[in-house]
Amino acid sequence: MGVNNLSTTKLTSLKAIRKNCINCSEGSTKEVKNCMITNCPLYIYRMGTNPR
Fold first, then answer.
1. What was the pLDDT predicted at 2?
2. Whole-angstrom Cα distance, residue 10 to residue 51?
3. Is residue 12 pLDDT above 80, yes or no?
4. C-alpha to C-alpha distance for 18 and 25, rounded to whole angstroms
5. Global confidence as pTM
6. Is 31 left (phi over 0), alpha (psi -120 to 50) or beta?
7. DSSP one-letter code for 43
8. What is the separation of C-alpha 52 from the centre of its chain, rounded to a whole number of angstroms?
9. 21 exposed, middle or buried (CB, 10 Å; 0-12, 13-18, 19+)?
10. Which among 33, 36, 37, 34 is positioned nearest to 47, based on CA atoms?
11. End-to-end CA distance of the chain
């Protein structure tokens, strides 16, 4: 049979969080920036950067 041609690129933790937030916001990066769910444990990392 054929080889599965799916991408196997590894993401850093911050990039994975960013991708999750974009997915949560239905693909809108603007919605991620304006996210109002401040009790989400990923909230401070939603922009894909370490706030510290």
1. 53
2. 22
3. yes
4. 11
5. 0.76
6. alpha
7. G
8. 18
9. buried
10. 33
11. 48
Cα separation, 46 vs 30, whole angstroms: 11
Question: If you ran DSSP here, which 8-state letter would residue 17 be given?
Answer: H
Residue position matching structure tokens 């919605």: 31
**Residues making up the chain, counted from first to last:** 52
Task: Write the pLDDT tens digit of every residue in 20-52.
Answer: 999 999 999 999 999 999 999 999 999 999 888
Do residues 43 and 35 make contact, with C-beta atoms less than 8 angstroms apart?
yes
- Answer whether 17's CB lies under 8 Å from 42's CB: yes
DSSP class of 51: -
Q: What is the distance between the alpha carbons of residues 19 and 50, in angstroms, rounded to a whole number?
A: 15
pLDDT at 9: 79
